[in-house]
Amino acid sequence: MIEGPQDTPVDVDAELDKLAKRYRQAGGVGLQILNLVGDSAEGLLKRLPKNIRSRLDQTTEAALTSAMRAAHGSRRYVTDQPDWVNRVVTTSMGAAGGFGGLPSAMAELPVTTTILLRTIQGVATEYGFDPDSDGVQFDCIRVFAAAGPLAQDDGTDLAFLTTRVAVSGPAVHGMIAKVAPRLATVLGQKLAAQTVPVLGAVAGALTNYAYTSYYQEMAHVHFGLRKLAIEADIPHAELVSDLQARVAKPRIRRS
User: Fold this and answer.
1) Range of the domain at 19
2) Would you put residue 157 in left (φ > 0), alpha (ψ -120 to 50) or beta?
3) Is residue 1 part of a domain?
4) For residues 81 and 76, what is the distance between their CA atoms, to the nearest angstrom?
5) Are 160 and 143 contacting, i.e. CB atoms less than 8 angstroms apart?
6) By the 8 A CB rule, do 182 and 145 touch?
């Protein structure tokens, strides 16, 4: 775990501006996906067969649980990769998953979830946190509670940064159960996009690129705030409130 506060003064405003920029950019590819598939984020879920929709929560919770085991086990053999490498890998997998329609997209889902979690763990390490600790495992799962790249977000969806419970092994599993229903909606949209006739492979590649980019950026925001709170010795909740105000602030367009 990183130590703090640091001797070198931290430019809190500059760091918060950087994190706000990351937050705004996180879902930038989402609109391209919706334009490609010709539907809204809500409408995508209706494309899935009813039996798949009814099992999304259960499927997602199982995928997260297996991803947690696989991601941690893989750390002994595979080092953390740069953000762009993770995007290339998941983009290729999304194309393969979309090419075969719903069956291949369902098979690809837990593998992509594992890589996304490894990506989040890698970001945690980048900021000096130990992904083997229960607290950081908890935080890595909590990143998945963000709205998702297809959501219309004005900066109000920052609750995933502030939820606090007692941190222990059981709490991590409790967080998986809590996050799963929300993530199920997000992953359901991903599955539906990958099953678009003819465009499945393209939509799958673009969707996985968007999802990987999104959760990478959310992880940077989350762990960046955690680190800033320690280094600047400022309450985490105060930094989240300040970040929310910056994200919601209208941006001035240059003519």
Assistant:
1) 12-248
2) beta
3) no
4) 13
5) yes
6) yes
- Tokens 């159960």: give the residue: 177
Q: What is the pLDDT of residues 137-189, one digit of tens each?
A: 888 888 888 877 777 665 556 666 665 544 555 667 777 888 888 888 888 88
Instruction: Kindly give the parts of the chain with pLDDT less than 70.
Output: 1-8, 29, 31, 36-41, 75-79, 84, 98-99, 152-171, 197-198, 250-255
Model pTM above 0.85: no
- Count of structural domains within the chain: 1
Assess if residue 253 is contained within a domain. no
| Calpha distance 157→25 (Å, rounded) | 14
> Are 213 and 207 contacting, i.e. CB atoms less than 8 angstroms apart?
no
Question: What DSSP designation does 132 have?
Answer: T
Distance from C-alpha of 5 to C-alpha of 235, rounded to nearest angstrom: 12
3-class SS of residue 191: helix
DSSP conformational letter for 250? P
pLDDT of residue 77: 63
**189 is a domain residue:** yes
pLDDT score of 71: 78
Of the CA atoms within 13 Å of residue 18, those in its CB half-sphere come to: 12
Which candidate, 32, 24, 55, places its Cα nearest to that of 214?
24
For residues 129 and 17, give the distance between their C-alpha atoms in angstroms, rounded to a whole number: 22
In a domain, 2, yes or no: no
